[in-house]
Amino acid sequence: MAERIIVANGVELCVETFGRPTDDAILLIHGASASMLWWEDELCERIAAGRRYVIRFDNRDTGRSVSYPAGEPGYTLGDLVDDAIGVLDELHVARAHLVGRSMAGATVLKAAQLYPRRVQTLTLVTTTSGEEGLSPMAPEFVEYVRRTPYDIVEHLVGLMRVYSNNSPFFDEHAVRALCKRDIARTNDIAACLTNHFLIDFGEPPDLTEIYKPVLVVHGDSDPVFPLDHGYALIDALPLAALLVLEHTGHELPRYTWDRFVPALLHHTV
Questions:
Q1: From residue 208, how far is each of 47, 99, 240 by CA, in Å?
Q2: 10-31 pLDDT, tens per residue?
Q3: What is the H or E stretch that residue 29 is in?
Q4: CA nearest to 141, candidates 106, 171, 166
Q5: Computed from CA positions of residues 5, 6, 7, 11, in that sequence, does the dihedral angle turn out positive or negative?
Q6: 90 phi, psi to nearest 5 deg
Q7: What is the pLDDT of residue 149?
């Protein structure tokens, strides 16, 4: 189904679905500054082919969804959680499997805490428990994000290269095409690149009290949240399993889909 604007939780959000509404629903939520396009079309189609109803949407300040002045987000992580549940409401989905990537790991964990009846399972991709004592972000990543972009497309392509941790599988041509497509449909690129890093995350949930089946998916070369962040999630969550993706950074690139998609389908049975 083509992307469309809906009103969920009182704001306009851009949503797109794949597959049949009668199948079990999987709600894909991306992280900071990333629109739904970073759940690539082919990936969504492959998941839907496994008899899943796949839902992706633009978070606030990404893509075609509502945007706020750069530097003034005016919403919290709690609002993003309510947005996700609001999307399910508008699509008449009673319960869904939630997949949160990077920053959205916090979104889906909070959703499981606040709306347990709406959540069947969780999948946490390249994210963190947030506890103290874990490995810090790689210096190369920290140095890169402090740069002032001279060209938005080239800056984002470079960021994706850093995320890949110089993987030999990095597809610069495909990444550049996706960056251009994403920028062209983004309401306010300055707000997109800024506001998610300024929101109030509130109190983190107690992971030991989240009794949902959880699949933790983590690259062994993640420069943002190194692999021990994935193991920390496994240790903290009562019902968690770990899928380690070799030669993979802070990303979910095409070469991992042959492992990721079957694992997700198995997890969401």
A1: 29, 19, 11
A2: 999 999 999 999 999 999 999 9
A3: strand 24-29
A4: 166
A5: negative
A6: -65, -30
A7: 85
pLDDT exceeds 80 at position 265: yes
Rounded Cα gap, residues 201 and 203, in angstroms: 7
Name the strand (E) or helix (H) holding 15: strand 11-18
pLDDT tens-place string over residues 108-119: 999 999 999 999
What is the percent of the chain with per-residue pLDDT over 70, rounded to a whole number? 100
CB 238 within 8 A of CB 210: yes
198 has a pLDDT exceeding 90: yes
Question: Is 212 exposed, middle or buried, given 0-12, 13-18 or 19+ CB atoms closer than 10 A?
Answer: buried
Which token pair is 135?
């490995």
At 12 the pLDDT is 98
Most distant CA pair in the chain: distance in Å?
Answer: 47
Helix (H, G, I), strand (E, B) or coil at 268: coil
Query: SS in 3 state form for 44-70?
Result: HHHHHHCCEEEEEECCCCCCCCCCCCC
Whether the pTM exceeds 0.85: the reply is yes
What backbone phi and psi angles, to 5 degrees, belong to 128?
-150, 155
Alpha-carbon distance 12 to 5, whole Å?
6
Residue 99 dihedral angles phi and psi, to the nearest 5°: -120, 120
In angstroms, how far is the first alpha carbon of the chain from the final one? 23
